[in-house]
Amino acid sequence: MARKRKELPLLEKVEITDVAAEGKAIAKVNDLVIFVPYVVPGDVVDLQIKRKKHHYAEAEAVKFHQYSPVRAVPFCQHYGVCGGCKWQVLPYSEQIRYKQKQVTDNLTRIGKVELPEISPILGSAKTEFYRNKLEFTFSNKRWLTAEEVRQNVVYEQMNAVGFHIPNAFDKVLAIEKCWLQDDISNRIRNAVRDYAYEHNYPFINLRTHEGMLRNMIVRTSTTGELMVILICKIEKDEEMVLFKQLLQYVADTFPEITSLLYIINNKCNDTITDLDVHTFKGKDHIFEEMEGLRFKVGPKSFYQTNSEQAYTLYKVARNFAGLTGNELVYDLYTGTGTIANFVSGQARQVIGIEYVPEAIEDAKVNSEINGIRNTLFFAGDMKDMLTQDFINEYGRPDVIITDPPRAGMHQDVVDVILFAEPKRIVYVSCNPATQARDLQLLDAKYRVKAVQPVDMFPHTHHVENVVLLELKNPAEKAED
Questions:
Q1: 84-116 tens-digit pLDDT
Q2: Which of 4, 144, 294, 436 is within CB 3.0–4.6 Å of 148 for a Cys-Cys bond?
């Protein structure tokens, strides 16, 4: 006999007091910390506990008794369902304030290192339509909201294209309008959807992997170029004929597309890194521009998704590097070499290291396109590539710029940085918590000289943070 689940309590008239990670807010009841989504400090709500641990709980706001005076009205019709842009209920000025607090709290509580005054966060000029890339998923199982279920809403068309619902991998929320990317993205997605409905194209079943339409990626550019990638499962010749008809429809309907590509994916997963990309119309790439530099962006390339704020971020990193033209710079986790190429004009030489071989090939191409001849790029796992032997061969860096993934830097990488003893380290991070941990590891030889948060993703809790570290005893290094 199955054990009866313990009924979790309903807490009445609880005030939300703070903002937490992952876009959630915080309430406290009898020393119990409760994490709640889609509420803001100052809201007074009834909370239904959904999950309870010893020191914290997770809950859902089921009734509002009082709305916070700083609460904003969400502008997106999909808010609260798709799982993105969770901070739409906070005015942007409040989002910026809490992101500044997030950086400060992480660096002081986790890092426990001496800090200078942290500079005010640099906000994004655009808070809507700021992304340059979105990926949409097709599914034959449309997600029905709780309200639609209560009202017994019946849709004639249960195929959907949009975003995955959190914790429901096989269901997709049908998106009518997303405010993240230029509106051309909405028009293309909806046109493809309507054409597929009209011509009875089968959408993929994400459990059985039956069906044809799988994914669509749209990439825009500050240069005005536009890339669309359609990804389908094709096993029969007649399916390929239908697919080509869809591609032709897209090409005819949207002549502004400069790069129309397609990928055949007959696997059980959605990754495309190991698949061939075919060009249906135009070029197989688009370009981004920054200070006269051109960066080639292919279908699999990584590029910061907020192009305009990426420029702000890179200017901060370059300024912190304090380059005079004589320095050897190491750019760790270089990706497609954007930062490496961006700072190369003020350095003697820049060496970039990145795990993904395709990204390194893009980095080399970007140097070639821009006539940059003082860069070297290497592909491999950072902890295996950045060794004392590597430094002995290619030279001790004067400056290290590091922009690791959310997990931060491996201990071996930190150890080699400490061995190399560059004069300055510029640490760019999308996760101030792991950045704080790494700063503590570097504290043996380095002091934090400056901190500059940069907001890349309005209406989310994510924040980029740039930290400048300087060697504590450069004189001793010179004597050695």
A1: 899 999 999 999 999 999 999 999 999 999 999
A2: 144
Average pLDDT, the chain: 93
> pLDDT tens digits, residue range 184-196?
999 999 999 999 9
> Would you tell me how many other CB atoms lie within 10 Å of the CB of residue 373?
9
Q: Identify the burial level of 393 via C-beta atoms within 10 angstroms of its C-beta, where 0-12 means exposed, 13-18 middle and 19 or more buried.
A: exposed
Active site members: 430
Give me the residue label for tokens 């990426």: 310
**């001496």: which residue's tokens?**
114
Q: CA-to-CA distance for 58 and 27, rounded, in angstroms?
A: 10
Give Cβ neighbours of residue 411 (< 8 Å, ≥ 6 apart): 441
pLDDT at 461 over 70: yes
Which amino acid appears at position 299 of this protein?
Answer: P
DSSP 72-115: -----TTTTTSS--GGGGS-HHHHHHHHHHHHHHHIIIII----
In terms of pLDDT, which residue wins out, 155 or 351?
A: 351
Residue 295, burial from CB neighbour count under 10 angstroms (0-12, 13-18, 19+): buried
Q: Is the dihedral of CA 355, 360, 361, 362 positive or negative?
A: positive
The structure's pTM equals 0.92
